[in-house]
Design a protein that fits this description.
Blueprint lengths: L1 H14 L4 H17 L3 H15 L5 H17 L3 H16 L4 H17 L3 H10 L3 H17 L3 H9 L4 H14 L1
Helix pairs in contact: 1-2, 2-3, 2-4, 3-4, 4-5, 4-6, 5-6, 6-7, 6-8, 7-8, 8-9, 8-10, 9-10
């Protein structure tokens, strides 16, 4: 009972921030704690509030970061449809970023969130769209790691093997093998 009151108080404090980035980040952290405490329904509800607050963030890179974080959190709480929605929302924002390096970094986060939401083909599509080889490799490695965790071993191997840079490909395949 005391823990429930503490969560509610933390949620109220987080929601009281007038800065959308601070508010959404704080709400996401509360949701993360709730998820760790196996309160998945409440965590999903608070994550939804974080997602709503994130849409008002002026900085698109920060907005993508929080939306992707929320997407991964929702996936952990087995709310894969909501997770996919948050990740797709993050993808739209990421695609609006004009700076190539910032956009590539944002898309790495989106690929991870889509993979966590079990939207593997979308995650692979996003990862493949990244033109920076190192960031593309990071995105594909993250997707491959999630695929291994989901016991999609052949697809994980294919994803890791599709990395064009030999050094990054070896690193990704090694990470996949370590998880196995």
């Amino acid at each position: 009972m005391a823990a429930a009151r503490q969560y509610e108080q933390a949620q109220r404090v987080a929601a009281s921030s007038t800065d959308p980035a601070t508010q959404s980040q704080a709400l996401a952290q509360v949701a993360e704690v709730l998820a760790e405490d196996k309160q998945d329904q409440k965590a999903a509800s608070v994550a939804g509030q974080a997602r709503a607050a994130a849409t008002s963030i002026a900085d698109p890179a920060r907005q993508v970061q929080i939306l992707s974080q929320v997407g991964e959190l929702l996936a952990k709480t087995r709310h894969s449809q909501q997770a996919a929605t948050a990740a797709r929302q993050a993808e739209k924002v990421a695609n609006s970023i004009n700076h190539p390096t910032q956009q590539a970094e944002a898309l790495v986060q989106v690929a991870g969130a889509l993979a966590a939401a079990r939207r593997y083909k979308e995650a692979e599509r996003v990862a493949a769209s990244i033109t920076d080889p190192a960031r593309q490799a990071r995105a594909k490695t993250r997707v491959a790691e999630v695929l291994v965790e989901a016991r999609e071993y052949h697809q994980a191997e294919r994803t890791a093997a599709s990395i064009t840079d030999p050094a990054h490909r070896v690193e990704a395949l090694t990470r996949v093998a370590e998880i196995l």
